[in-house]
């Protein structure tokens, strides 16, 4: 997503994700099971046209890097990462933010969490040769889950 796209959408100035929710779903994130059993009609249908989705629960093979890079929802809850606004977590927040929902306090919290992922960008850049998609694949997949395009690192 370009800065101009984000500004037109009313994104916070410091929030510049590389990928849209649609692009993330198409690349393969969360083992294709993030919305498993949850109504998705609030989102544009075209987001799911080419999405890598599982009909049988989480399948890490559907992830872009073919590995599991997620903690369980139970762990997300235990760590206090889930809010009442978005019981599925950060990606649900991002999808809703992307389509225009604004909750200032929650937006600030989630954008701060997104910004904290930059340490993983730095680790991949430090440890891997540019373009080596076989290096730090778990971190790269995790970055995709946070709308950082780790394929470009």
State the separation between the terminal residues, measured CA to CA.
Answer: 16 Å
What kind of assembly state do the chains in view correspond to?
A: single chain
Determine the mean pLDDT.
91
Shape: globular
**Unreliable stretches covering 5 or more consecutive residues:** none
Q: Which structural class best describes the helix and strand composition? A: mainly alpha
Radius of gyration: 15 Å
**Number of DSSP strand runs:** 0
Please give the largest β-sheet: none
What does this structure look like?
The protein has one domain (3-65, 73-118). With 153 residues, the chain is mostly helical. The chain has helices spanning 3-8, 21-27, 73-78, 90-98, 104-116, 118-127, 137-145. 39% of the residues lie in helices and 0% in strands. The model has no long low-confidence stretch (mean pLDDT 91). The chain is globular and about 40 Å long. The two termini are 16 Å apart.
Q: What is the element layout, followed by pairings?
A:
Layout: H1 3-8, H2 21-27, H3 73-78, H4 90-98, H5 104-116, H6 118-127, H7 137-145
Summed up:
Helices cover 39% and strands 0% of the residues. With 153 residues, it is an all-alpha fold.
Descriptors:
single chain; mainly alpha; globular
